[in-house]
Amino acid sequence: MHLFSEKEIREVVGLNEKALSLIEEGFERLAEGAVSQPQVARVDLADKNGEVDIKTAYIRGLETFAIKISSGFFDNEKYGLPSLGGMMMLLSTETGVPQALMHDNGYLTDVRTGIAGALAAKYMAPASVNTCGVIGTGAQARFQVEALRLARGFDRVLVYGRTPEKVETYKKEMEEKLDVPVEAASSPEEVVKESEVVITTTPSKEAIIKKEWLHPKLHITAMGSDAEHKQELDPNIFQAADIVACDVYSQAVEMGELHHAKQAQMIKDPKQILEMGPLVKGEVSGRTSDQQITVCDLTGTGVQDTAISVYAYQTLKANGKGQEYQS
Amino acid sequence: MHLFSEKEIREVVGLNEKALSLIEEGFERLAEGAVSQPQVARVDLADKNGEVDIKTAYIRGLETFAIKISSGFFDNEKYGLPSLGGMMMLLSTETGVPQALMHDNGYLTDVRTGIAGALAAKYMAPASVNTCGVIGTGAQARFQVEALRLARGFDRVLVYGRTPEKVETYKKEMEEKLDVPVEAASSPEEVVKESEVVITTTPSKEAIIKKEWLHPKLHITAMGSDAEHKQELDPNIFQAADIVACDVYSQAVEMGELHHAKQAQMIKDPKQILEMGPLVKGEVSGRTSDQQITVCDLTGTGVQDTAISVYAYQTLKANGKGQEYQS
Fold first, then answer.
1. 0.90 exceeded by the pTM?
2. How far is residue A283 from each of residues A121, A248, A278, measured CA to CA in Å?
């Protein structure tokens, strides 16, 4: 079994076309029925303010598949530890024998989540984007905006965060990374009104984006909600939008924005909601006119985890990383 | 993170009172509502004749919990590999940080499954057992019978298997291990009729034990079925028995003998079916008279996995086993 550390993984695996195309292919296989993906298994450690999610998917045709363990322990600060952690186990699809343990502490999840955002934009954002707006200043506020460049160019970033210091750090870091101006907005409303693409990346438990702020030629990707109690979008948005999509409906309607949209009876016909698989496969159309308002709800799928893990494993081996554990 | 190999684990972890009491406590916590245990996540790799199950449970009060990956790839013989494999990841219940990877290839599952059988017998078998009958000659036919001694003494073992060579090997091995005579039966019927405790340990897809063979003072533990297509007991047995129990009803009714019993409409009132948690906690009574017929359906639970992993981790560390992986 190969063991890979977060440091090694960060050194060679990043946001790029190759990773995007592997995740895109994963979603194509999903649309073809060539994926076995059980429901997310969640362990609640309520008295510890902790939770662990397990995601996995077998994608036919790949040599390995991933079982991903993601942890969130929200009192970890008192131990000087990050809240989020995780790792991926890679098993042979031929024999089940473990091939690799990637102790990435959630880095690969950040990469594959950013890429799902890029795919949402690829099929749903307007052809030309001037301003990319982002709500939140954490890791995904960085990954999503950087990944968007795999799908669309943009001339500026408009960011809203509640903590001025974090906004300042974000601005500095991202201006250097992207070489476009990053400006601080005074409200989520300003972000939405001035952007063609808006990405919400918060752990919010109530709606941040209101329906009233929507405008023609807007695409929203909401990726913050991955549990039934999380929410970033006003449910009315799902009725106002011209096109609504998600990664996997059965999951988004349990864990994502669509959960709240359904509860608020804003989903008239589930069949009208597009899924990433048919979208990337071209079986359905995303945006069909420049003036449409589009929304995509991302909850994160095992397909993405297996796809990114296969990419990472190939890249890590090609770069001579890792160490062997003979068990 | 500590890494432990199958060899190291086998050297120091076995069937004993300490492991039994930890698993018993795990079931007590489950009965108290102090366990968070999601449904089993299953990945089907149908075109590879493979399947992977993921089980986990957080037991309040313990320092770590296990996420167990079990694989079954039934064409592995062509690669000279065993069909079954697996490992356990241990995470801190305080921070979610991975503490250990136990690459046990399913050994700890064998141990904890044997112990669940011992617990079933402890609460349900008649006080005095002359003959322990076992159907099957594989690993669990060994572990179950050995573990039974933690709950009941017995004077002989009666084994039925379809392959004479395997029966012969079983007989030799177990006579040496247990120091009681092991006899080969000519049929499952003979096993049932001559035993007070019968344990079924096969991957059968149709009933092996018939209702007509039941007799007073019989206890049956059926542990072979852990998927909806597997079955060892005639569903009528569930109506004929005086007491029916299982490890966890919600799981057994999906994956165990109770699945078939329910389909055959042999479960009149699910509340009549005892669960291991209340049984070990003394909230309900198992066998109350010597002449009763009792049946226990075991499917294997995350609680057992976490309990055995905690025991194994303590024991391995105390014996200086394992190696450190600094990731």
1. yes
2. 17, 15, 5
